[in-house]
Amino acid sequence: MKEATLLGSQIGDNKGSRALSMSDKKKEAKKSSDLVNGRCHLAPLVSTLDELKKHMSQRHWEIIRMTPFSPLLDLHPIVQERGLLDGILQLFDDPTNTFKIGKSHVTFRPEDVSLILGLPCYGTVVKFKRQKPLSEFEEKYLKTSKDRQRDNIKKKLMEIVHHRSEENFVKLLVVYIMASFLFPHTTSSAPSWVGQYVDQLYTMGQYAWALAVHKFLMDGVPKAARCVKARRSDRKINTGYLRGCVIALNIWFYEVTGTGKKVHYGKVPRALCYGEKSFRKTVSISELIPLSNEENGILGTTWASRVDRPMTAEKVRKKAKVENINSPQQTPLHHSSNDSSKRSQEFNIMVHRLLESLELLMQAARNLRTCPEKPRESSSLTSLLDAIEWLDTIESVKEDV
């Protein structure tokens, strides 16, 4: 397979190398412009959220926490790396709807989006078309396509955050997050159908949002991948844009290969582990695929094992026992002959495994907390909420050991 070259050529970076000529610079600029692009830009969204947080009242926070989107308010300005996205699309295998990473065909699934973004994966399916007449909220804030443009939504948010209209503010804030991050479109505006799903604050958690984010993105991947591959075959073609939450795809790739640079550990959802300095420009995407994994023909992370190789509970226990002895590739440790050092390493690994294994439990508990149909005094719900509090207290252990 031809190597998937990424943006970030190192011509002229090393000492002694010649400076780029004007023609070389034009070629590099042309090469950059040929890369597929997305509309998922987190920096403007995070900047707007930071400004709004200065004026949000306690009531604003109480309402937003009743929705499944509250974790997204803590996102960092993660970079949408065009070169990485372009390289990932070159790995896409259309017949199997998978990505060929090394010798493995890995599936990007809705469950992965749920882990990355913290959104519910199961529930009522979100349909990308209008099914209801405009509500009073939509008539007031989202009536026309101009009203749904991101810049105009931002202006309205800055205005109503100071008013006693907390519920409308939260509804419009969710629309802004959808337009900027979850369902960004080439028109830089919110899709016409989003308003009908945010009109009732207390039912937002009943929808399979992770499934919707996954479908909205993946519906455009096959075409974008074909354009990227055609361009690499020296065919004159405009690769254009890929709609949807491409940052989720980038994070998934780093999680699967174990090569992402996390700025935080033990955070839930996974997107909160990454920040502005997490992504790096590389010469080729093959550099991000561990050689040992290619030789084995499988990916050496627990993430990939769960995605592509469903296992029984007994196999999971056996695998965990082996992995607790052998240091995982994505958790580098300093080896020492000292017995206490080895015990410390094993304990470190066990903490990593524990936190990763219980992320789904934490997310399920949070979904139950926001679901209005679940009894508040349920013993099972209470147990899950207790688990959240317990896990929150040990999240710092991962950094301390």
TrEMBL record:
Biased composition (Polar residues): 324-335
Stretches assigned to the Aminotransferase-like plant mobile domain: 80-256
Region called Disordered, residue ranges: 1-33, 320-342
Entries under Pfam families matching the protein: PMD
Basic and acidic residues bias: start-end ranges: 23-33
Entry-linked PANTHER family: DUF1985 DOMAIN-CONTAINING PROTEIN
Name of the molecule in the record: Uncharacterized protein LOC120275360 isoform X2
